[in-house]
């Protein structure tokens, strides 16, 4: 069998879209037993690079993960025909850059231009970190764990403005200045009756949306409200001691411009369309992904599956929604498709709930997912298996058998992947690292 | 008569031209003339006619009359002549005598004959008395008896012995006694040749002819003297078959009588054809006369369906070889042992032997014995045909839907909530499905965020927490716990809206303001305000029971106002129902029957389920009466749950069983499921989905699909769908202590003796 396999040869033609790596497109004969590494060597040889560059190979938009022969057999292609193989520079396995210790679980993380990282934690604090691992500022104000954070803007690397949502049913807008080491809480958004799980700022930065356990989605404007608005509400809040404290801080109160009801259970995740401020996507415990029209405040479309939706992410590049579910899979949806049964692709490899997903901002095929099984997986939707899987190393060897630390959030900003979870750390991975490794798996 | 016809022929010949009428007149004339002729001839032989009968005479005369009447019609009947021609010859002579004889007497005596009406109504001829002259017939001397051959004893008592021809009595002849008879015999010389005539009751002397007959009979020869046994055969009918038939007419068809037996045989064949036993057109297959014995195509005969093949003989072993390897040979010691052993006990009935070459191998001395044993085996051990039941085992299994089609149900372990330091006895999920509380033996209550597994809050109390229960109403954010003989209400601040918290607080504490009769004799409980420290923890009310027994279970009513507290050891105060808003306590049962295991409120109706050790009693709280008693058939009930529709109940028992009751169906279990290997600790229904689960000391949870149909005729469908294993460890032979379904999702949360709580999704 070995001999016969070696004897089989196939005619291939290499094509690429990356102009700097183009080779001749004349068909050539290669042994069918070759895997990715062998093909990559061929390309490097053809290009005559001294320092080899790893490539990934695709046949019919599917990644080659086995030998050529096995791939052809599995997909039922003939070895007689000329096979067109597209190759791309392979993404190197992300390398863990650094980890920033928090006091409690990290529930939410957002990166801004790969420079500043905003984290929300279960210790009720919000922190801003820079790449060197310094905690630039810590924001205190919420009375319950932070569930979600979102950047609004950064001016001149100094003036930060962002939003935070908490289990204390409020959203706060913050503005801070690094130089003066000062921060203020601009206003407090009151309206939700349950813990707020997710907030999203529209691309135009004029409004933001929040999803809560009380099964409602609320829309808010960015403008700072006038003080006189909230006289009545202060009276109501006076009964609570906690509110009295807040009142001392003298924070402005803001109310939603609209409430969009539709979800039957808790709303776990809301997200705006990358380009269209008018479109809002939300996922909830009622097993549905809903598409909302912001202007008319209507529920445009409902996409149902059988499992609870935890995190969703929309990529303007591929035009797909990715959602993480309680049945350990990631589902991809096409929001433009009219019919209801539109799960385009199901990615399964995680061993527990997938809590959070994030599309790559650079590549329209890549996404990252974090799960309760303690792993972060990077996917290319052209391949059904994950490209890379990360375990967070447990330093304590005694705890090897213990339950893995849950991952609550992931974010992919250009070349940096961020994750936060139960291990109280913010992990940063570089997704475009220099250095060639032969590790294919 | 023959003559008459001859005459007629003559007349015909003579007068051919005469008409028919003439012929008749001639005939009459002829007849008379013939009579005259006859009478003339008869006078000559009248003597010979001694024994002519009067009957004969009358017959003759009648016959003559007849003849006269019929004459005209039979003028040309040839058949008559031919048919009777045989008789003619025979009677020729005799007739002549007869006609001559009686014609004479007739002519003389015809005047004296007169008629009387006989017994049958016809006239009867009475003949005149015969004049006893010399020539008269002597045969009429003795009146002959006419009674026939009847026993003469019938006439013993009468004076007569019968009747003569004219019906006159024949008197008995005088009869002497024995002496007379003797004298008669002695005197009469003819007595030895006389015989007694039975009919006339007197001795008659036998004639010589009669004696001659007797003598001939005694000699053994023919009785009649002139009988010639050797006279030549006269062939009246020829023995030779006639070539020509006597009658030329063919046998008419009407004379054909079909044969019954032939018809029967034909019907037999017809029936066989109808039944197909005889195929009419079938040609007989010619069987080959000779068979090729050694033909290779010849197949062995098919075995009889009931044939049992004989077991095959064991193949020879290595040590049966004539030259086995030495390791097979027995050592001396083994040989000794082998020889000592009883032949029946020997493992092998031979001893391996080594021969250097085949030539030295002796004759096989066990051959006969072996064959004999084999025959004995075949003959004495009956071979029984094992009848395999041709039943597909799959068909015996009830048709249940595939568990895959019954999704969703929890399948895998997702989260573990680890913080407790002792076994977790009780858990409760809030109605929104976001929060979980757990009570443990480490004397703490913990509040968990379900989806992240974060312990949000911890309450430390002074005793083991036996039971916690979240208020089933969404508008009220509070739960109750039981701790020794106290029951407390806790408002978990921070997880609910302020308004809800405020209203809950008012709802729970409003009872303090209501006027209560504090100093009551039969005071059951004490509703106490919490201390400041407790108040900060969110404890709103503490209910201290008068009895000092541990409260094992607390259960809410669906409306969130009433709840019941069970203390199995507290006797008649074992079941108490508290009203939260008014701070009142009721004791629904004056006396409890047996130890109360657990209670449950009906989800819709005002019913109350009380499970004792063996029975579940259903009470109507409004009417205060017992409605139904469910007989579980288990030894010790551990837990009870009521289906959200209210018509079905499941119970778990410490003897590993789970029973499903259909309340409409029967007080006995509809299904008893015995899947656990150890005691069932808790059973629970899902609030929305058709699921129920049981948890057990064997460390597993069993998930069942339990569909209840609205159609009353359709029984509930129960399908075991999943066993959740490998979650909880068994500690001190305690496994999973409690479980509860998530109110909205198909998830189940279980708490175990291994200090953990697990979420299965």
UniProtKB/TrEMBL annotation, chain A:
<dbReference type="GO" id="GO:0000466">
    <property type="term" value="P:maturation of 5.8S rRNA from tricistronic rRNA transcript (SSU-rRNA, 5.8S rRNA, LSU-rRNA)"/>
</dbReference>
<feature type="repeat" description="WD">
    <location>
        <begin position="260"/>
        <end position="302"/>
    </location>
</feature>
<keyword id="KW-0677">Repeat</keyword>
<dbReference type="InterPro" id="IPR036322">
    <property type="entry name" value="WD40_repeat_dom_sf"/>
</dbReference>
<dbReference type="InterPro" id="IPR012972">
    <property type="entry name" value="NLE"/>
</dbReference>
<dbReference type="Pfam" id="PF00400">
    <property type="entry name" value="WD40"/>
</dbReference>
<dbReference type="InterPro" id="IPR015943">
    <property type="entry name" value="WD40/YVTN_repeat-like_dom_sf"/>
</dbReference>
<dbReference type="GO" id="GO:0030687">
    <property type="term" value="C:preribosome, large subunit precursor"/>
</dbReference>
<keyword id="KW-0539">Nucleus</keyword>
<protein>
    <recommendedName>
        <fullName>Ribosome biogenesis protein YTM1</fullName>
    </recommendedName>
</protein>
<dbReference type="InterPro" id="IPR001680">
    <property type="entry name" value="WD40_rpt"/>
</dbReference>
<comment type="subunit">
    <text>Component of the NOP7 complex, composed of ERB1, NOP7 and YTM1. Within the NOP7 complex ERB1 appears to interact directly with NOP7 and YTM1. The NOP7 complex also associates with the 66S pre-ribosome.</text>
</comment>
<feature type="repeat" description="WD">
    <location>
        <begin position="189"/>
        <end position="223"/>
    </location>
</feature>
<keyword id="KW-0690">Ribosome biogenesis</keyword>
<dbReference type="GO" id="GO:0000463">
    <property type="term" value="P:maturation of LSU-rRNA from tricistronic rRNA transcript (SSU-rRNA, 5.8S rRNA, LSU-rRNA)"/>
</dbReference>
<dbReference type="GO" id="GO:0005654">
    <property type="term" value="C:nucleoplasm"/>
</dbReference>
<keyword id="KW-0698">rRNA processing</keyword>
<feature type="repeat" description="WD">
    <location>
        <begin position="99"/>
        <end position="130"/>
    </location>
</feature>
<dbReference type="Pfam" id="PF08154">
    <property type="entry name" value="NLE"/>
</dbReference>
<feature type="domain" description="NLE">
    <location>
        <begin position="10"/>
        <end position="72"/>
    </location>
</feature>
<feature type="repeat" description="WD">
    <location>
        <begin position="302"/>
        <end position="334"/>
    </location>
</feature>
<dbReference type="GO" id="GO:0005730">
    <property type="term" value="C:nucleolus"/>
</dbReference>
From TrEMBL, chain B:
<feature type="repeat" description="WD">
    <location>
        <begin position="736"/>
        <end position="761"/>
    </location>
</feature>
<feature type="repeat" description="WD">
    <location>
        <begin position="417"/>
        <end position="458"/>
    </location>
</feature>
<feature type="compositionally biased region" description="Acidic residues">
    <location>
        <begin position="31"/>
        <end position="41"/>
    </location>
</feature>
<dbReference type="InterPro" id="IPR019775">
    <property type="entry name" value="WD40_repeat_CS"/>
</dbReference>
<dbReference type="GO" id="GO:0043021">
    <property type="term" value="F:ribonucleoprotein complex binding"/>
</dbReference>
<dbReference type="InterPro" id="IPR001680">
    <property type="entry name" value="WD40_rpt"/>
</dbReference>
<feature type="region of interest" description="Disordered">
    <location>
        <begin position="128"/>
        <end position="148"/>
    </location>
</feature>
<keyword id="KW-0853">WD repeat</keyword>
<dbReference type="GO" id="GO:0030687">
    <property type="term" value="C:preribosome, large subunit precursor"/>
</dbReference>
<dbReference type="InterPro" id="IPR015943">
    <property type="entry name" value="WD40/YVTN_repeat-like_dom_sf"/>
</dbReference>
<comment type="function">
    <text>Component of the NOP7 complex, which is required for maturation of the 25S and 5.8S ribosomal RNAs and formation of the 60S ribosome.</text>
</comment>
<dbReference type="InterPro" id="IPR036322">
    <property type="entry name" value="WD40_repeat_dom_sf"/>
</dbReference>
<feature type="compositionally biased region" description="Basic and acidic residues">
    <location>
        <begin position="45"/>
        <end position="69"/>
    </location>
</feature>
<feature type="domain" description="BOP1 N-terminal">
    <location>
        <begin position="155"/>
        <end position="410"/>
    </location>
</feature>
<protein>
    <recommendedName>
        <fullName>Ribosome biogenesis protein ERB1</fullName>
    </recommendedName>
</protein>
<keyword id="KW-0690">Ribosome biogenesis</keyword>
<dbReference type="InterPro" id="IPR012953">
    <property type="entry name" value="BOP1_N_dom"/>
</dbReference>
<dbReference type="GO" id="GO:0005654">
    <property type="term" value="C:nucleoplasm"/>
</dbReference>
<feature type="compositionally biased region" description="Acidic residues">
    <location>
        <begin position="71"/>
        <end position="90"/>
    </location>
</feature>
<feature type="compositionally biased region" description="Polar residues">
    <location>
        <begin position="136"/>
        <end position="148"/>
    </location>
</feature>
<dbReference type="GO" id="GO:0000466">
    <property type="term" value="P:maturation of 5.8S rRNA from tricistronic rRNA transcript (SSU-rRNA, 5.8S rRNA, LSU-rRNA)"/>
</dbReference>
<dbReference type="GO" id="GO:0070545">
    <property type="term" value="C:PeBoW complex"/>
</dbReference>
